[in-house]
Amino acid sequence: MDTINIIGAGLAGLSAAVTLAENGVSSRLISSQPSERSQSVLAEGGINAALDLMGEQDSPALHFEDTMKGGVYLADPEAVRNLTENAPRIVRKLAALGVPFQTENGQMIQRYFGGQKKRRTAYAKTGTGKMLMTALTDYARKFEADGLIHRLHHHDFVKADIRDGILRGVYVRDRYTEETALHSGPAIACAGGLNGFFPGRTTGTTQNTGHVQAVLFSQGVRMANLEFIQYHPTTFGISGKRCLVSEAARGEGGRLCVLRGGEKWYFMEELYPELGNLMPRDVVSREMYRVVRRPDCGDQVFLDMTALDPSVWRTKLSDLREECMHYLRIDPASALLPVEPGIHYFMGGIDVDARHRTSLPGLYAAGECACQYHGANRLGGNSMLGAVFGGETAARDLLDGGFDGGCLSLSTGCLSPTSVSLSTGCLSPISAEKLSSFLCSALGILRTEEGIRQSLEGVGEMLRDEALTEDFRARLLLGEAMLRSASARRESRGAHTREDYPERDDRAFRKTTLAECRDGSVTISFRDLP
Questions:
Q1: Residue 501 DSSP class
Q2: Residue 203 domain-assigned?
Q3: How many whole angstroms separate alpha carbon 451 and alpha carbon 279?
Q4: pLDDT per position as a tens digit, 75-85
Q5: What is the percent of the chain where pLDDT is above 70?
């Protein structure tokens, strides 16, 4: 089998690489930064698996039900069932690789997370992503020493080599030498989310520019559910981005409140008595948006963690406390923490099937850049699980001959940088901010047709600029697809709330939104779910 090209070296990319290596197949890990600086390192709260360690009769079937309900029944049931049934095996394997999951009396413990009635989130304080990445990176080094994993750090994906409707390889540019090489063979895109479309407004790393998705979309790769953007309820602003206050804080007893008549009102507990502060993130974000606009309430929501036991701060939330004190000079153990929703996760992305195959033969996608497990809203604790399982699933399909490919045996050589038309150079901050302003004004927590229309006009005007680089034109086309997807879905579901269409319409819109680009023209359609 050809060496497999993996674009991205976070959890999904590492998972794919080690799965291939365990079976004697080599891969190239292509990334702008080393694995230790990927977005996955920033993941905090934990990873879900129905291990039933807390004596609550949890099961993969209940995990499946919570995931489908949290995503408002917009995910593929086959894919979600595969995910939840494999979750216990994945977490046990990660523990065996050395992930220091939280324990009590020598036994792993789990915590509550939003949208789930069982304690099924395994965690390592609030640095779970860092611990998972450390374990997988160390494991990958063994295969790197054996010549089965080849790291190409400080390298950028330029574009796919597509001939006869099949991906034959990928063009990759070395950031240091500016040399561009063509690497033959199938590819797995593990490029993370679209944070670069919303600079300064997301909790994600700015290294996740969205360049890979934009270029692939402009080359004809189908996208899905681009309108579904998750706003995490609890973030605060720091220079250049939003800082996440992990859902673990609410899982351990943190309570959202707003001042009403000078008194603290714990609005989530009153409005949703069953799950309260642990309702799914889309619900919490919408309620936060609404309460600060009420005439009888203050204009700031707070997270109240002052009643937490000192042992919780010492053993479970010490990292979070340090962050708050470092950036805000607020000790959340003794004072209210001001929070507001921030863009956190992109449920939509590259359209894949249950085996993570895309619309382009030879190309797979996994992790946040793929649209798969989360439907209209992701449950906390399912992102790291989806990344690890998605990378593994894509790799296993390749190992099983799911793509026979007919890939040509192409030599890997250096090409002149000018021979590749798309540029991976720095995006103009002014252009990026202009596009971001159009997207944010239309794709906020609450949306309207008029707001979407105005933003579409703005993006359309930008597209008419004849001086555009191909790279930025690709970004604009993907931005247009996000807006057109939001316009076409005339209902409210999960993270997509239309003020002009406030009701959910299962008959017309319990379907996957599809976006395709042909000859520079964006089209939107819908596909029935199983």
A1: B
A2: no
A3: 28
A4: 999 999 999 99
A5: 95
Residue 128 lies in a domain: no
**Residue positions counted in the chain:** 530
| Parent domain of 324 | 234-341
Tell how strand 4-7 and strand 187-189 pair up.
Answer: parallel
Helix-helix angle 128-145:382-399, to 10 degrees: 20
Distance from the Cα of residue 421 to its chain's centroid: 29
Give the CATH number, domain containing residue 474.
1.20.58.100
| Residue 48 φ then ψ, to 5° | -85, 140
451: helix, strand or coil:
helix
Q: Are residues 426 and 335 in the same domain?
A: no
The count of structural domains within the chain is 2
Specify whether 238 is located in the same domain as 334. Answer: yes
Tens digit of each residue's pLDDT (9 = 90 or more) over 365-412: 999 999 999 999 999 999 999 999 999 999 999 999 876 544 333 334
The pLDDT mean for the chain works out to 94
Among 288, 321, 341, residue at a domain's last position: 341
The residues, any chain, with a CB within 8 Å of residue 229's CB and separated by 6 or more, are: 343, 345, 346, 347, 348, 443, 495
- 475 in a domain, yes or no? yes
Q: Note whether residue 27 is domain-resident.
A: no
With a CB cutoff of 8 Å and minimum separation 6, the contacts of 28 are 3, 4, 5, 6, 150, 151, 152, 183
